[in-house]
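Please check what follows.
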Amino acid sequence: MNIESIRRDFDVFKKYVYLNTAVFSPLPKITIESIERYLSIRKYGITEIDEEDIINGARENLAKIMNASCSEIAFTLNTGHGLNIVANGIDFEKDDNVIVVDSDFPSVVYPFLNKGIEIRYIKSREGVFSLRDFEKVIDDKTRVVAVSHVQFTSGYRANIRELVKIAHEHDAITIIDVAQSLGAVNVDVKDWNVDVVVGIGYKWLMSPTGVGFLYVKEERFSDIKPSLPGWASVVDSDDFSTRSLNYFDDARKYETGNLCLSCIVGLNESLRYVGRLGMCNVEERILELSRYVIKRLEEFENVFVYTPKDKCERAGIVFFKFSGIDSSKVVEELKKYSIIVSERRGGIRVSTHFYNTQEDIDKMFSIIDQIM
């Protein structure tokens, strides 16, 4: 991986030390150019645009990076949109319950709170949770187990394969949010045997906002009904019939209407970019960079690092707090030097992608040393 060449693909590094992919990734030049080409044609209406070709190409590359089938992929607006499609498509019974993690991203939990059913919370400990805790609270009335693959604050990466095994012993539907993992570490839906995966493109997949995705395992199609039907959900959409609902027999039935094609063009270009680098190479580099952040933090006596050292339990996020120091002030001070990180839940979150370097990290710590 030629990092000097890669960094020339991102204009952000001309201006910032950018360590904030967990919020938004900067866009590669090639992605911006691809969107601009699309828009230059779009000004003529849709006469010269093959909408089906654009969508199918992105669906194919998205399926490939997750080891899914194209027929199991639907496009959404964002992660919350996908989660609501699923939550509202499940026929919950009165005594059903849903298991979530108390520190998870709100969008993972809110769709089920909105259903008015029992929510069972797994208590995280300093941003990390144990699969044994799921075993203690799950029962045969557990309808859904919903959790993020990588926690948005601590950066803890869960063992999804083992979690799915626990859930399936009770026939619970497993829903995994990969917003903070897909594009950073390996995601293999077949290996996990997971039922549902939701995510977005604008973080580790480097796409514009406005496009997300929903994976539903084919065997679960009958358990999750289309909850937002529209003309794009049906086979005979060109008939514009209002007399019947003839849904697609694949995941397209979860799509409602016109999609943001410029967003999908951008997502597909970035997926191709990652594909050329190789997901294994991307993961290896990200894990090395997050390891280096943790190593540098060991130089401080007054810091608590929430992110696990074990590379199997982390991805691109490192989360930490300095005792007696306001994290938001540290983040603001770093910004004065064009070093971009985030404050989350009272701590500092650094998120490094493959395009970052140890020099980026060292620059951040040189300013933190001054603050200390």
